[in-house]
Amino acid sequence: MINAVALRAEVHDQIKKIGYADIVVGIPSFNNAKTIGHVVRAIQVGLAKYFPRNKAVIVNSDGGSSDGTIGMVQNTSIEDFDAILLHRRVEPISKIAFPYAGIPGKGSAFRSIFEVAKMLDAKACVVVDSDLRSITPEWIELLVKPVLEGGFDYVAPLYHRHKFDGTITNSIVYPLTRTLYGRRVRQPIGGDFGFSGKLAQFYLTQDVWESDVARFGIDIWMTTTAMANGFKVAQSFLGAKIHDAKDPGADLSSMLYQVVSATFELMEHHADTWMPIRGSEPVTTFGFEYTVGLEHVNVNTARMLNLFREGLNNLREIWLDILGAGDFREVERLGTLSDAEFEFPLSLWVRVIYDYAIAFHKRKLPVEHLIKSLTPLYVGKTASFILMAESMNAVEAEAEIEKLCVEFESSKDYLINSWKK
């Protein structure tokens, strides 16, 4: 049995006083005092409006904030229920806020939330990011109700995003996880999820809490673990996701490393599950889809293509070893094209990702070196998509992502045959 996470004595005392909960809403945080108050208010209104008779607890699992985040959670409340057209709840909402224990990272924060949900024997749980600016009370209904009333164990978010946003999801994570596990969960690393108490308890039994899952791999791990273990999965349309801007100077290869290494590690763990699966099917989708205004994403494709060409010069031997002579020649040909002509073929991109998954499986290079060598290829593929989709509307751009998914699915035998060699 996996050891329970260490919760402070006062947290145990609070849990004991509360006794049980129907719904637990978790917010992992680290120095989010400026935004977390809005998130807490939206949760309180959502619980009051849609679940007035259910006993609910808000759990803030904090990474040691020094800006008063925990105090902001404790002191945020709805002052005037009449002003937002609500009656006071039959059941009051409890709050628990504490610094989590364990490896610093989002996964450790989630583990503490799962532990509280288990102790309270919660029926339904939600986790939402602490820097959300676009969260509404309806998110709580859309993430909780499929669990409480629909019998679903896992509810992924479905957002509208700008066509040039979320490119790691669009070009790698969504097509690959859809192909591997046969379920079309569009945002497998969305960050805001609903899940059953039963699934929370299952997560706690998994021996991953001293690994990279505890640091940064929790989102893809939760989604994949639910799909690969036969839990009932759905998604809910939440509108737009607007949160604190990420540093545009941040190292892209670090983000790619975190997401792709976690995805590949899960492939290792679940190989017996995904190998027999062919094709994919939609998952049940809740919520009313509507068009949302999205901020434009500015992209410098000339700089991206320069990075791709630099990779071709600097990583030639590594790429030749991973991709093989035939595909490497195709990549070399791309390096000779002008910016206006540049187009990364879908079939080649699919083989690149499969070849990298196989290289990971066969431990051809240290993991960080391997996946960071993928960065210039990913940047080239992203630039190709941006150049092609510049004049497309959102529906047309999504259709191109669907074409990529179909290519991943139709080439799955290539992955399996190479994996077994």
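(the above was protein one; protein two follows)
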Amino acid sequence: MGHDHAHGTGSNRRRLTLAIGIVAAVLLLEVVGAWLTGSLALLADAGHMLSDLFGLIVALTATVVAARPATDRATFGFARAEVFGALVNGLILLAVAGGVSVAAIGRLIGPSDSAVLPTPMLIVAIVGLAANIAGLVLLRPAAAGSINMRGAYLEVLGDALGSVAVIVAAIVILSTGFGQADAIASLVIAAMIVPRAYLLLRDVVRVFSQSTPADTDVSEIRRHLLGTSGVVDVHDVHVWAITSGAHVFTAHIVVEPTVLAAGTDALLDELSGCLSRHFDVAHSTFQLEPAEHAEHEDTQHR
């Protein structure tokens, strides 16, 4: 199993490295294309891709940093580096969306003679879409088995949708001469950016505030644990996430006197196994105690 995991991690790193190269090349192409054609939509998509490039670099870094062992100064390891990266990424996305929206609205309400060269704009967007499709094909096999890789896959998918918006705008300008289609496409791209920024920042706040993960039902966990033979009560329950997909659980478990007398190894294995199998909890800690000890605890923990 260790060999397979190492092989999978190495494969994911190679896929991410190639995807970063593809996105970086397209980003450079779109910046140059935006400058040459005067297309705000291309510039907006380049800003979108800049954020996505950062997200891919964060994903690659996370595969390296998360593999580092815990230390006395970082007892849970370094996986939360991914969350700090997501915070910066979310703020960049909002800044890009805001800047693009202001520029696009300025073009829409201002003079309509902004010079946009639709043919090179279309060529650049098609090349960008083709590169994004290559990135999607590259990342798709790993997206199902890793939340980190799934996030990277969605980054590139967002880029592909942005390229489609630019292509549509270029075709409209070529066929109708309606130059403001470029500004409208920019607003569409900005509108696609904002929800992703919101979701990223919402997840960051949820992790940093140590809230219960959205996909975790504490009541259901209690029911599972109470159904374990020898367990009388469950209280002082805490569930949070170190980073996305890395849940941590602690609880006080009141047990029957016979459990403590016979040994607790089997019960601890059963409890941690239950959480791992049914609730995808990566790290669980239980304090086993007799009923008389639970009665002495502060009522605010119940």
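Reviewer note on protein two: Residues 218-301 form a domain with the Alpha-Beta Plaits fold (CATH 3.30.70.1350).
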